[in-house]
Amino acid sequence: MATTRPITRFTLFGGVVVLLLCLSVFPSSGQAPKDTNLVHVEAYASHESINATGSFQITVVANIKQGFHINSHKPLNEFLIPTVLRLNETRGIAFGSIYYPRPKQVLFSFSPKHLSVYDGKISIFAECKVSENISPKNIKVSGVFTYQACNDQMCFMPESICFEIPLKIVKAD
Fold this sequence. Notes:
A hairpin with an 8-residue loop joins strand 8 and strand 9. The protein has a four-stranded antiparallel sheet, with no helix packed on it. The protein has one helix at 9-25; strands at residues 31-32, 39-45, 49-51, 55-64, 69-71, 84-87, 93-99, 104-106, 115-118, 121-130, 137-147, 149-150, 155-156, 159-170. It has one domain (31-170): Immunoglobulin-like, CATH 2.60.40. It contains one helix and 14 strands. The chain is mainly beta.
């Protein structure tokens, strides 16, 4: 028959100290805190006024701070967070394909393999079409731009930037 030993206060205290030391030495993620100044996003429509049944294009421009990059929309490593443009459902507007820029293949000191990234200024385009049965009015198309900014030493927490684009739907000629 096995005997059990009661846990002494010293053993319990020692375990807590070891746990706290591990948490301070080995952070729970390899990510730095959020920094919202690394990527600036602006969104535009190709036209301010759009005819009912007309089509238009949305452009999202991201300016990435010098010395930083964001992962492409199709990272080469499944564990990396992709850059994603998502358009929110808008009554009377049908969204088509989204076109991302060609990424750069870059080798960083922390990775033995090339990474697929964007840096500098990039533009992402989306095709849009106005429904036949929409009445003339002012509407807003909105969306979210999600990315993870990194430099050659660390990555920051993923960020999502919301945007709105005002549009004026006018009567078709």
